[in-house]
Design brief:
Length: about 350
């Protein structure tokens, strides 16, 4: 039976492939089934001399990772020929590797090393454009509600955006969790009947404008009352916290939630504006100067939003992104003005 674990080594290094005529590679050490160039940590020479390494292999690896991110996030904004700098990837692969920690210096390990480099490059572009989060935090988890701020749909409790992730953390697409089955208006007693709209619904249906995530803890029930200011923050006597410290913590959390409510309500609008700018990029022809400008303005918009969420003013945010470069500062101000004009002309309702 063929050993697929060393299929690449057999085909390319040992020369069992059709085009090699069973002639092994001159750099292959048959005694330990390893590549001498790889073992001596000479990736620059290995890239030039290796039978397996070529641009087709690099294209294939990039396409595979792009398809993976496309399936996860449902958005395609990276063109493998246009946006990804192949020369940068190749130069990174040619750099000397210090303390790599490889257990085996064969072709299979070299392939994994290349795939890891490509994955990091693709992810770097997605992070730069604001499509995925920089860190693994609750706000980047698929179970974190997008329609009900600070609610974990899996644990059904309030979580901070910056909380550490749990063992169920997942980035497998936002739309998969925002469904009728996680809405408090859906009852399973009458075949998934929605008592808000008074009609039957499937648990996998998309959420409607009346959607409310299920929350089970006391703090959440207090937070979701319509009149937060006038409502008594403590539940009935039988459900009261046992200590004054717990009561104090509940009150502090409630006040913080009220203060940040206005900022959180802007999140859906910001996401909508990001999507509009993404569509603006896709509407431009590939390889044109106009498409390059639209991409740059989308990246700037995402970076400015991230800084604004941290409490930095617009003027300081633009200056911080320019990093002391006067020419870049002028270009950033010009790009922001163009974005404002674009939304004013095409989506005036978003900037009222």
């Amino acid at each position: 039976m063929k050993n697929f674990k060393y299929a690449l080594t057999d085909k390319y290094c040992r020369g069992f492939g059709k085009r090699f005529g069973k002639n092994p590679c001159i750099y292959f050490d048959a005694s330990v089934q390893e590549c001498r160039l790889f073992r001596e940590l000479k990736p620059d020479i290995l890239w030039e001399k290796c039978r397996y390494t070529d641009f087709f292999m690099l294209y294939k690896s990039i396409d595979r990772h792009l398809d993976r991110f496309m399936n996860i996030y449902g958005i395609q904004i990276i063109d493998n020929k246009e946006d990804i700098n192949f020369n940068d990837i190749i130069e990174n692969l040619k750099r000397p590797v210090k303390n790599p920690g490889f257990t085996k210096y064969n072709l299979e390990t070299w392939k994994k090393y290349i795939n890891t480099s490509v994955y990091r490059k693709v992810r770097e572009i997605l992070i730069k454009r604001g499509i995925i989060g920089h860190k693994k935090e609750c706000q980047n988890c698929s179970f974190f509600s997008q329609t009900k701020s600070n609610v974990c749909l899996l644990k059904k409790e309030i979580r901070k955006k910056t909380d550490r992730i749990c063992e169920k953390y997942s980035q497998t697409g936002k739309d998969k969790t925002e469904q009728c089955e996680s809405c408090e208006h859906l009852t399973k007693r009458i075949a998934h009947f929605c008592f808000k709209k008074m009609e039957p619904r499937n648990k996998t249906d998309k959420t409607c404008e009346e959607y409310k995530a299920i929350i089970t803890n006391i703090i959440s029930e207090i937070k979701n009352r319509e009149n937060e200011e006038s409502y008594d923050i403590y539940p009935p006597e039988s459900d009261n916290p046992e200590t004054l410290l717990e009561k104090k913590n509940i009150e502090i959390k409630r006040l913080k939630e009220i203060e940040s409510k206005k900022l959180k309500e802007k999140d859906p609008l910001s996401e909508l504006m990001k999507k509009i700018l993404v569509q603006r990029v896709q509407n431009e022809a590939r390889g044109t100067a106009r498409r390059t400008i639209c991409k740059r303005q989308h990246e700037l918009f995402c970076n400015v939003l991230n800084l604004l969420e941290k409490g930095i003013s617009m003027e300081k945010a633009i200056s911080k992104i320019a990093d002391g470069d006067n020419n870049k500062l002028k270009m950033n101000n010009r790009d922001i003005n163009e974005i404002r004009i674009y939304f004013k002309e095409n989506c005036p309702e978003l900037i009222k």
